[in-house]
STI1 domain-containing protein (Helobdella robusta), 391 residues
Amino acid sequence: MNSEDIKLLREFVKVCEAKPEILHLPELSFYKTWLESLGAKLPAKSESHGHSHGHGCCGHAHEQEKETHFEPAEPVVEDSPESDLDIDKDGVIDPDEDVPHTMGDESMEVTDEMLEQSSSKRDEAMSAIAEGNLDKAVEFFTEAIKLNPVSANLYAKRASIYVKLLKPNAAIRDCNKALELNPDSAQPYKWRGKAYRLLGEWEHAYQDLNKSCQLDYDDDTNEARREVEPKAKRVMEHKRKLERKKEEKELRERREKIRKAKEENEKARKDQEARGHGPGSFYGGFPGGMPGGMPGGMPDISGLFSDPELLQAFQDPEVAQAMQDISANPANIIKYQNNPKIKKIIEKMSKKFPGGPDIGNDADQDDDRSSVPESGHSSAHHNIPSQPDID
């Protein structure tokens, strides 16, 4: 066993001391069994999801380290698009809610002396990592960030410790800040991808890990990317399916609106015809014929409705009532012979539709008859020559 292996073992023991619940992880069952065989008394299994994986702190791509790094418990992430999917939640943990550490003051001027002090604090943080003291490493990185708040690398380093401490939200905050300072840095994408993986946000995890590999490939990042890829693709396919369903639903709704609009238009057209404004009827109640006994069938109704004077007259309630009255009983036309307004309308209609009675015919005939003497005696009496007196 070389010095590097001993260092890793020491680091693992430190993590076990800080978070003994990791001994109950399935992949460490062999180690747990061995400890129990030696008579070791292990703490009871906790319901908490806060397991630690400090044994991966040095960034070595050992298979066991990466597996335990993704294997805490299985909470259900509410309101996530994959909540309807049957996706294995192994390694997903509850989000951390710790008070965020300082992000530093970017507006301050960083002197050469401050840069040296920041570098010194960074070295102390790396030493703390080597000793397995991750909490102390966070403190040293925080001091380094205060002295040099524009270093994207320092934020990424602190984020890597947060991931190992199973504090994904804190890691994501640091990675976001690092990417603000340097959007082309691979490390923030790597650690943010691993943080998303701990939260079960498979699609975001895959996108970040994939981006990190594109910027600066390393085996550890690629292995994590391959681990989340199948789940991420299932989530993406699920989202595409939901989007297709949404589009299909919207299309059906648009078609239904069009269909209903057509039905309503057709119903309105038929209602209008039924009220008498369509073919085969005349002005609100004269089906089959014209008012005043005019011949049915309406020989040229277009001529009627092209006459502005008639159209305007039909808007008059008095005219409309008269037309209804005459339509019900053509003999009632005589009632309007002394109404110049109605008489004028009927005379105009009679000219457009020859063959119907004239409102003035009977009256004129009566006038003519009244002017003729009831007897021709008077005239004849005057025209007959006087007879001779035979006496």
Notes: Confidence is low (pLDDT under 50) at residues 48-83, 277-299, 361-391.
